[in-house]
Amino acid sequence: MTEATPATPQPVIPQLIVGLGNPGTKYDRTRHNIGFDAIDALAKVWQISLSENRKFQGMFGEGMGPGRTKVRLLKPLTYMNNSGQAIRAVTDWYKLPPESVLVIYDEMDLPIGKLRLRLSGSAGGHNGMKSAIAHLGTQTFPRLRIGIGSAKTAEASGGAVSHVLGRFSGREAEVMAEMLHLVVGAVELSLKQGVEKAMSLYNNRSVPLSND
Predict the structure, then answer these.
(1) Is residue 1 part of a domain?
(2) Residue 35 falls within a domain, yes or no?
(3) Is 131 helix (H, G, I), strand (E, B) or coil?
(4) CATH (domain of 84)
């Protein structure tokens, strides 16, 4: 009797991509809403229309990503602290496993111009991720963090809250526009070849803030 060869682990392919943020014009284009901006960028590239879905408590759309992959996009309208409610509503409806959910959000511990993809991890003090982890019942789902810089490096240092709810400077906004192109590339590769492959190619890439 021959021994079975160990199965090659299947790549982690997202089926639901969630961007975290706060609803309303007051929060539009703030650092804390970069997750919303990422979903808007993906929706534009993939030509997926987003519309309010009360059942899912968010702006939701579904369509085809690269490689004719079925993909769903979500911007929770629950406010950041309750983001998990909307995520859970979608995963329950479509019977999606947590590991098929890719969450995109802002990260103060990363400088502007950098991103980090991971397959799992803690909330790291991010209230939206705390809610996502609580409602999904696990930390084992992929996430893409977009650097927004720390409050310490902000010109007008009014603490973490005023930093994340503030808007990017002119040069920072230019960098973030370029960052969203990187984000789209990382997500598209995740859909085609898996999150691990995207991690290996995109976690070391960055957009320089200065023109020096």
Answers:
(1) no
(2) yes
(3) helix
(4) 3.40.50.1470
State which residues form the domain around 102: 16-202
**Number of domains the chain is built from:** 1
- Cα separation values, 61 from 55, 80, 190, 194, Å: 13, 19, 19, 21
Specify whether 126 is catalytic. Answer: no
Q: Is 184 within the bounds of a domain? A: yes
pLDDT value at residue 209 = 79
Taking each helix axis from N to C terminus, what angle separates 195-202 and 170-193, rounded to the nearest 10 degrees?
Answer: 140
| Residue 165 covered by a domain | yes
Residue 1 has pLDDT above 80, yes or no: no
Catalytic residue, candidates 32, 126, 135, 163? 32
Q: Which residue's entry shows tokens 């859970």? A: 88
Geometric angle at alpha carbon 178, from 177 and 180, rounded to 5°? 70
pTM (global) more than 0.85 = yes
Residue 134 in tokens: 């609580």
